[in-house]
């Protein structure tokens, strides 16, 4: 809520090179990392698809390679 304000509240999924995925809660503009998972093998130089799904009080992030579809 309040996403179009100076102090928004929302959830996001973030992916970084190497492949680390984090689920983050932003409340009034302040970030709190809820979960982080690092891949067992290093990934760089390829596009990935990141999906964040809310199902009730559960958030789930999935990442797949855009070129192979591999999770």
Output the keywords:
single chain; two-stranded antiparallel sheet; 0% helix; mainly beta; 71 residues; three-stranded antiparallel beta sheet
Q: How would you portray this structure in words?
A:
- This protein has 71 residues and is mostly beta strands.
- It is built from no helices and 5 strands.
- The chain has a 3-stranded antiparallel sheet, with no helix packed on it. Strands 4-5 form a two-stranded antiparallel ribbon.
- β2 and β3 form a beta hairpin.
- The model has no long low-confidence stretch (mean pLDDT 92).
Percent strand equals: over 45%
Look at the structure and give the mean pLDDT.
92
Q: What is the CA-based Rg, rounded?
A: 14 Å
User: Helix amount, in percent?
Assistant: under 10%
Q: What's the topology here?
A:
Elements lengths: L9 E7 L1 E10 L2 E14 L4 E8 L2 E8 L6
Antiparallel strand pairs: 1-2, 2-3, 4-5
Quick recap of the structure?
The protein is mainly beta. It is 0% helix and 66% strand.
